[in-house]
Amino acid sequence: MSEVAVHAEDLTIGYGDDRPAVSGVSFELPLDGILGIVGEAGSGKSTLARAVAAQSVPGERAVPHIVGGRLRVLGREVRDLAPRRRNQLMLKVGYLPQDGGSTLEPHLTVGENVAAPIYQRDDDYDRRKAGALVAQLVDAVRLPLGVMAKMPHELSRGQRQRIALARALILEPHLLVADDPTMGVDVLVRGRILTVIADLQRERAFSALVIGHDLRELRSMTDQIAVMHEGMFVGYGHADDVLANPLHPYVEALAATAR
Questions:
Q1: Residue range(s) defining the domain that contains residue 31
Q2: What is the pLDDT of residues 208-218, one digit of tens each?
Q3: DSSP codes of every residue in 20-46
Q4: What is the CATH number of the domain that holds 27?
Q5: Closest-CA residue to 193 (of 155, 223, 162, 167)
Q6: Is residue 167 part of a domain?
Q7: Alpha helix ranges (H) inside 96-248
Q8: Per-residue confidence (pLDDT) for residue 198, from 0 to 100
């Protein structure tokens, strides 16, 4: 496998209209590393996350497509990837969409929600083994095992978000793409969610692309950041270097809030 989990080169992504949502971005995410991407709403962060994850969830807008440049994920070129190979890649990428807790199936228990990707891959998978894997991950995201028997609506928003994270990691992916995992979550819980992601990333040695809107939150889990503004990178590298030498007014504004 390549020495990088994600390699993007002059990457441009659109939805079929005239103006691309992401325009000419280049970056690398090392194996077993974390890259944080920060930017305001509409900057193209979620489009980039969905393209890297090579998947979407019901209710999301049309699937983004690569219209220029290159995107290589876990050693595979994503552009024009055949459906079968895309499905193979998806098994190696965990995707936590915005407000992932709202994507839990309301008619399934919490445990069944976490286990769902296992049975989507193999309907005959041993139920006892699946239960053990689910219990292990529920414990890993710092929730009591008793929540496994509950329904999603019985959990708080922050708890549902952590269950969605457990579901994204149940197939032991090599890469996690987390799109604004603290969006809409109470401020007292946000840090806990990012700490769980960072701890699991170290323990399980996967790569992670984490999207956010709060630079201070992202800096709590990684020093490597990219700053997006109007579909482009206006800062990229070590957070201290990016903020100390801002090359764009938006980065200057971020640097002022980070002091």
A1: 4-100+175-258
A2: 999 998 888 89
A3: -SEEEEEEEEETT-EEEEEE-TTSSHH
A4: 3.40.50.300
A5: 162
A6: no
A7: 110-121, 127-140, 157-169, 187-204, 215-219, 239-244
A8: 92
